[in-house]
Amino acid sequence: MTDVDIRLRVNGVPRRATVPPRLTLADFLRTDCGLTGTHLGCEHGVCGACTVLLDGEAVRACLVFAVQADGAEVTTVEGLTPPGGGLSAVQTAFRDHHALQCGFCTPGLVVSVTAFLAEHPRPTDEEIREALSGNLCRCTGYQGIVDAVRAAAERGDAV
Amino acid sequence: MKPAAFEYHAPVDPEETVALLARLGDEAKVLAGGQSLVPMLALRLAAFGHLVDLRRVKGLPGIEHRGGVVRIGATTTQAAVERSDVVRDAAPLLARATPLIGHFQIRSRGTVGGSLAHADAAAEYPAVALTLDARLETLSPRGRRTVPADRFFTGTWSTDLAEDELLTAVALPVWHRPRGFAVAEFARRSGDFALAGATVAVGLGPDRRIDRCAIAVFGLGPVPCRARAAERELIGREPTTEAAGDIADLAVSGLDSVPADLHGSAGYRKRVGAAMVARAWRHAVREAVHD
Ligand SMILES: Cc1cc2nc3c(=O)[nH]c(=O)nc-3n(C[C@H](O)[C@H](O)[C@H](O)COP(=O)(O)OP(=O)(O)OC[C@H]3O[C@@H](n4cnc5c(N)ncnc54)[C@H](O)[C@@H]3O)c2cc1C
Ligand code: FES
Ligand code: FES
């Protein structure tokens, strides 16, 4: 099968690669770019662990082929680090509100919540819960995550 | 699991795309948002030698409202529909059904054309298209044609589209006012496909009586289904919510291929479906009366 040349930006860094078409964006990020913050849980769109920003929108990186990201701007959880280092506002809120235990779901949640708050800076509790429904967490019971999202929204500089 | 290997094509021109599909035959599959196709490939429920990506094809995305019709291009994402003021104003039923599709991370990629062409029995958009008497616009090497929604969905995951035919757009007629629309569904978890759902559209005439009415159920058979008998009963009547239970019973009474699995028996699904019709009916009628 014919490999395809792609050019894209990952966390601001221009990348060129030659990839087999069946390579998912998630595997490209983890294997070719060494960005293992993007996790893979189910590999068929259900769990949300692989969520990244593709041209600013939260997507399942396991349901996008790397070839489809040709020309795009991709942001992974590694790319959310503020310019001076440290944690983003959403990450800080997650830490402060015990929104993680094992941490497997956390990158996907942090990326999803970052995208969600960019579009809904003043969410209701119902909107927060609805927005979290696309990310499975097997540890926390979600309460801490809901608190973290609310806190990040209240701080107002989540993104 | 990883999808089986395939050749990737990203044509630009619509005619070129359908010519490619014709040449590759049943080895090829169209790739739109990938939110249904890629899971099937990943689970190896399906494998194709060639995927033809629509992402670069010209003229496929876009929303326009002209001449009493809202026309939505096939590769318009569900997220774009959700954000569209035009859809909210002129096709409220589509706007309200959209947030019920999966999660926002799915809707950012999933397309209107993909939802309709994939034709899942429990999907929202096919039911909306059927309720609004949408017309589906297609292109193949034999030219363009338009298929009414009630002839488009032919069975579970199957449509009237030929192998080398693209769905290019869906045209939704705008209903006159006063009017009311509602969708109601029951899913086991937020974002799941519905166990059963209903869509209702009601239009009132100058005498404030029902002069137009469409009721559809989804998840209760291989394709969404209009409740034509119930609709006929309702024309000319006063718009009230009292009869909701009777309308709902009538709407599900004729259904004879309701699925059954470990999530619910056919009888249970029918009862849920009737409850959804009643709920949607009440919402739609209240909206029409106050419109
Ligand atoms: C976790 C999850 C939850 C979901 N929940 C729901 C839900 O609740 N309700 C719901 O309706 N959907 C749901 N979906 C499916 C989602 O809506 C898909 O986006 C949609 O079914 C298919 O659209 P797509 O653009 O992703 O198409 P693809 O996956 O790319 O394609 C689907 C099929 O349609 C064909 N196709 C696509 N576009 C065209 C075209 N223009 N012409 C001809 N053929 C075409 C493809 O060849 C393929 O066979 C869910 C998906 C996931 C992963
Ligand atoms: S790994 Fe992508 S959604 Fe589960
Ligand atoms: S913290 Fe373990 S899955 Fe969420």
UniProtKB/TrEMBL annotation, chain A:
Pathway: Alkaloid degradation; nicotine degradation. CDD domains: fer2 (cd00207). Residues 4-80 form the 2Fe-2S ferredoxin-type domain. Keywords: 2Fe-2S, Iron, Iron-sulfur, Metal-binding, Oxidoreductase. Transmembrane segments: none annotated. PANTHER family: OXIDOREDUCTASE WITH IRON-SULFUR SUBUNIT, XANTHINE DEHYDROGENASE IRON-SULFUR-BINDING SUBUNIT XDHC-RELATED. This is 4-hydroxybenzoyl-CoA reductase subunit gamma. GO terms for molecular function: 2 iron, 2 sulfur cluster binding; metal ion binding; oxidoreductase activity. Signal peptide: none annotated. The keyword Transferase does not apply. It comes from Streptomyces griseoruber. It comes from the Bacteria.
UniProtKB/TrEMBL annotation, chain B:
Signal peptide: none annotated. Residues 1-177 form the FAD-binding PCMH-type domain. SUPFAM superfamilies: CO dehydrogenase flavoprotein C-terminal domain-like, FAD-binding/transporter-associated domain-like. PROSITE patterns: FAD_PCMH (PS51387). The keyword Flavoprotein applies. Coiled coil: none annotated. InterPro entries: CO_DH_flav_C, CO_DH_flav_C_dom_sf, Diverse_Substr_Oxidored, FAD-bd_PCMH, FAD-bd_PCMH-like_sf, FAD-bd_PCMH_sub1, FAD-bd_PCMH_sub2, Mopterin_DH_FAD-bd. Keywords: FAD, Flavoprotein, Oxidoreductase. One of its GO terms (molecular function) is oxidoreductase activity. The keyword Acyltransferase does not apply. This is Carbon monoxide dehydrogenase. It comes from Streptomyces griseoruber.
